[in-house]
Amino acid sequence: MDGNKDEAARCIGIAKAAIASGDKQRALKFIRIAQRLNHDVQVDDLHAACENLDSMEFTSSTEQKPIGQNQKEPSPSKSPELSNGVRNYTEEHVKLIREVKKNKDYYAILGVERTCSVEEIRKSYRKLSLKVHPDKNKAPGSEEAFKKVCKAFKCLSDEDSRRQYDQTGLVEEFEYNQQHNVRRRRRRTAHDYFDDDFDPDEIFRSFFGQADMFRTAHVYRTRGTGSQQRENSNGGGPNLLVLLQILPFLVIFLLAYLPFSEPNYSLQKTYSYYIPKVTEEHGVEFFVKSSNFDQQFPLGSPSRAKLEDLVVRDYKNTLGRYCHVELQRRHWNRNYPTPHCDRLRGMA
């Protein structure tokens, strides 16, 4: 209980700092966390301070100067959501982004049940991330929604973090615990906070295996120094990408039409090689797969003698490898048996 009180006091301190900087949402977030950790904590003054932030913002917005004759309204063509003065996203895009942003539960964000499997989580992330990706969805807030979807997948696809989240039950408390744990390790490592060290594009690239899924010049940046920039597909990259995509089909095509022959025998019994045979010399057992083997290689024929010589040679090579291992072990243990070496000497 004392630990919860200390954490609640720390949350109150963060909320006060957020109020001082004018960040109402962050302040309310940590006020709620503090209340969950300690129900006796007094937060009425903090709520009042948050309400004062709204009134201050309204006053400052009404005191702004109106657009005069020498001032121009921003051109709609310069807006990232507009292309040639036409909005390039639909109401469906807006609705999807709104639904993702309003959800406070990772399972609800991905649209899966708490008892779902990892494979169901991966399937849901695959569909949803493509729909909210900033290169595909130009609606306002798409970058924030995409980051939220990637956070949910990163948490629920890992067994340990999913178990911790299920114990916490709330996104805000889980993320706060992650930040607090990293903050305690920060003296020994160079990692940044959970939120700053998070790169949704890196998860997206590792999942789909492509650095430029939609072939656009859009750049998505996250906080921290580890974020990477997408390359513009107007260069020479797509030609190489197309070649790499076609290459596996070319290999399969060549393998399908190139002639090749299977071995006539095997020293080990397998599903294909199941008919036992024995060499005339040394009595080495081998296996064939055709019931017509004796017709193809009649006993006493040169072809049969040549094939059995190959069988004996392969068998001796196998014994030699095992014998080498036995001699190495016998170097450390004089009593170590060497049956393969004895068998090889008997065939000399």
Task: Give the tags.
348 residues; two-stranded antiparallel ribbon
Structure explained in plain terms:
This protein is mainly alpha-helical and 348 residues long. The chain is built from 14 helices and 4 strands. A two-stranded antiparallel sheet has the order 1-2. A hairpin with a 6-residue loop joins β3 and β4. α6 packs antiparallel against α7. The termini are far apart.
* Alpha-beta content class: mainly alpha
Give the radius of gyration.
35 Å
Uncertain spans:
61-65, 67-80, 186-196, 215-236
Please report which band the strand proportion falls in: under 5%, 5-15%, 15-25%, 25-35%, 35-45% or over 45%. under 5%
Order of helices and strands: HHHEEHHHHHHHHEEHHH
In spatial order, strands of the major sheet run 1-2
Mean pLDDT: 76
The N- to C-terminal Cα distance equals 80 Å
Shape: elongated
Oligomer: single chain
Into which percent range does the helicity of residues fall? 55-70%
Total strands: 4
- Sheet having the most strands: 2 strands, antiparallel
Count up the helices. Answer: 14
Brief summary:
The chain is mainly alpha-helical and 348 residues long. The chain has 14 helices and 4 strands.
Topology at a glance:
Elements: H1 2-21, H2 24-37, H3 44-62, E1 82-83, E2 86-87, H4 91-102, H5 106-110, H6 118-132, H7 142-156, H8 159-168, H9 171-185, H10 200-208, H11 237-257, E3 275-278, E4 285-288, H12 293-296, H13 302-332, H14 339-346
Antiparallel strand pairs: 1-2, 3-4
Helix pairs in contact: 1-2, 2-3, 4-7, 6-7, 7-10, 13-14
